[in-house]
Write a structure and sequence with these properties.
about 260 residues, alpha+beta, four-stranded mixed β-sheet, about 35% helix
Length: about 260
């Protein structure tokens, strides 16, 4: 009769009844970060540094332009599957679709021989379109945003207007002008859409994440809410007026109760 194995002499993999993982094959990589041919080309051209390339890739920074909007400051991202079982080659992804025409991006492509592509299906890779809208939907930058819509989407412009008005970064007048110049569609029934967006839950103050930019603009103009204020170090969020609370309470009361 076979003796029962002594658990004190078993390895973790024996106990789990699984095979040990295959060791990572370092030989299939060109070298450490900063030492691959692409890394060296980018570093020698002054387009990146070893630190920026230290996590299997990174977002390349164009230091010749202002930090905001971030979509243009970081116009291209290098992706490498350093710890993947696959062996796909390095790829460059654009921050926004219109970044393909930027001189910095073209220089990266010329130096590395790789073409930067746009992947709007990835929330991470497409985050630049949101940065472009939120960074420029301000009293100082809204006209620049209106003139560079190829870097973002109308949905993001609408969301950015709503957010910035609620937090004091954009005046209602400039928000309206931006929405009009960008041709963001106006709701057929903005009052109902606004109340429907705010009705769920315990909304105690205007929530820019639940309604569109037009809804926020029209709610302020209708006297339902006060826009936020940004006075230097002190920032005040948007708030309901008595008329706004009354309209919201009446709408909530009109919603049929669940049986």
């Amino acid at each position: 009769m076979a003796r029962r194995p002594d658990p004190r002499r078993l390895s973790l993999f024996d106990i789990a009844d699984t095979a040990a993982p295959t060791p990572f094959d370092h030989a299939r990589w060109d070298g450490r970060s900063g030492e691959t041919p692409i890394d060296r080309a980018l570093i020698e051209a002054g387009l990146s540094d070893p630190y920026g390339l230290s996590i299997g890739g990174g977002t390349l920074q164009d230091t010749s332009v202002p930090y905001l909007p971030r979509s243009l400051r970081f116009p291209v991202r290098l992706i490498r599957d350093r710890f993947s079982s696959e062996t796909r080659p390095p790829r460059f992804y654009l921050s926004t679709p219109a970044c393909a025409d930027l001189p910095f991006v073209r220089r990266v492509e010329d130096i590395t021989g790789l073409k930067a592509v746009w992947d709007g299906a990835s929330e991470l890779l497409g985050i630049g379109t949101w940065y472009h809208a939120i960074d420029l939907a301000t009293d100082e930058g809204w006209e620049t945003l209106a003139a560079s819509l190829g870097h973002t989407t109308l949905a993001y412009v609408s969301r950015a207007v709503a957010h910035q008005i609620c937090w004091g970064g954009l005046s209602v007048a400039n928000g309206r002008s931006l929405l009009e110049r960008a041709a963001v569609p106006r709701p057929d029934d903005p009052a109902r859409e606004t109340l429907r967006g705010w009705a769920p839950g315990l909304v105690s103050e205007p929530d820019s994440g639940r309604v569109s930019g037009w809804c926020i603009v029209l709610a302020v103009e209708a006297g339902w809410m006060r826009p936020g204020r940004n006075g230097g170090r002190r920032q005040t969020r948007a708030s309901f007026t008595p008329a706004g609370r009354s309209a919201l309470d009446a709408y909530r009361a009109s919603i049929p109760k669940a049986a």
